[in-house]
Amino acid sequence: MTQKLRIAIIGAGRIGYVHAGSVNDTPELELVYVVDPFEENAKKVTAAFGGKVSNDPSAVIASGEIDAVIIGSPTATHIPLLRECIAAGVHALCEKPLDLDIKNVEEFRAQANAAKINITLGFNRRQDPQYLALKAKVASGTVGSIEQVILTSRDPGPAPQAYIAVSGGIFRDMTIHDFDMARNFVPNIVEVTAFGANSFCDYIKEEGDFDNVSVVMKGANNELVTIVNSRHAAFGYDQRAEIFGDKGMLQISNLSDSTVKSFTKDSTTAGEPFMDFFLERYADSYRNELKLFIEGIKTGKVLGSTYDDGRAALILADAAHESAHTGKSIKVNLN
């Protein structure tokens, strides 16, 4: 390995651009390649952050010019690219989900977990400063034994229809972050019940998906986890959490660009709008995730989310999908 860790980013969409910015902000890293089948997308990233352009991820992985990749390409490419990374001895930070078919995840599981490279899953919210503080307080015993977890996640507006059509559905695309966060506090989920509705978006309904969902899950120690998701929120990007235990309660509220509040004859406690996009709200989490990935490579350990974390989140997403379409509660085994 050279003095600087040599990085390739595969996928030059909006998430690839964010990762490139994080690489650029990290002195220990060098952005060597940006890979995308549409080279114009890759050129936009390299124009901002440097590096060479390629449309061939396999050639870049096998080139010997890189030490690690950040995979932000379409979901169907994730496991094939991880296989190539293992063969080439190239470390990989891979965006979620691992795949849309749990069979592919299970088939690759033994090879992934036995790999000599670092495979880290991109569940960035675990590394958000607010959630890190929440986790630390739970670990210190502030709320005692967890009894309830409530997670709320609403996007400012729905993604385009073309994206919805290939996303795998709201549970695998959006709620999967909340499934992972739920396991951050209640690792062993044993039962999933979900409800879905079409409340406002016709093209999401046309694609056979929901725009509004709620999920209730039970943990092995009788903890209850409630997840509320929507593809829109008039007041911005709605990201809240509550942990309730026998000794108290912890909450995370939405973030604004300013904490200034106004009090007038027309309104009281009026504040600035909430952050309007996940890239703003979770910018720090992407940088922290990358730092943990680098430290994991140095120490030979996966310090962030693991392959099995990605597997567990997809199992929960599949169970929620089944429950919402059948009206049944679904038992799960995450082992």
What's the helix and strand layout?
Elements (H helix, E strand, L loop, with lengths): L4 E6 L3 H11 L4 E7 L3 H11 L2 E3 L2 H5 L6 E4 L6 H11 L2 E5 L6 H13 L4 E4 L6 H11 L6 E9 L6 H6 L3 H4 L1 H11 L3 E9 L4 H5 L5 E8 L4 E7 L7 E8 L2 E5 L8 E2 L7 E2 L6 H4 L1 H17 L7 H20 L3 E2 L4
Parallel strand pairs: 1-2, 1-4, 2-3, 4-5, 5-6, 7-10
Antiparallel strand pairs: 7-11, 8-9, 8-15, 9-10, 11-12, 13-14
Helix pairs in contact: 1-12, 4-5, 5-13, 9-13
Characterise the protein shown here.
The protein starts with a strand and ends with a strand. Helix 1 crosses helix 12. The longest helix is centred in the C-terminal third of the chain and has 20 residues. The model has no long low-confidence stretch (mean pLDDT 94). It has 335 residues and is an alpha/beta fold. Strands 12-11-7-10-9-8-15 form a seven-stranded mixed beta sheet.
The level-1 CATH class of the largest domain: Alpha Beta
- How large a portion of the residues is in β-strands, by DSSP E? 15-25%
Q: Order of strands side by side in the largest beta sheet?
A: 12-11-7-10-9-8-15
| Gap from first CA to last CA | 35 Å
Helix content: 25-40%
Instruction: Supply Rg.
Output: 20 Å
Number of helices: 13
Tell me, what's the shape? globular
- Name given to the CATH architecture of the largest domain: 2-Layer Sandwich
Tally the structural domains.
Answer: 2
Q: What is the succession of H and E elements?
A: EHEHEHEHEHEHEHHHEHEEEEEEHHHE
Based on DSSP secondary structure assignment, what is the total number of beta strands? Answer: 15
Look at the structure and give the mean pLDDT. 94
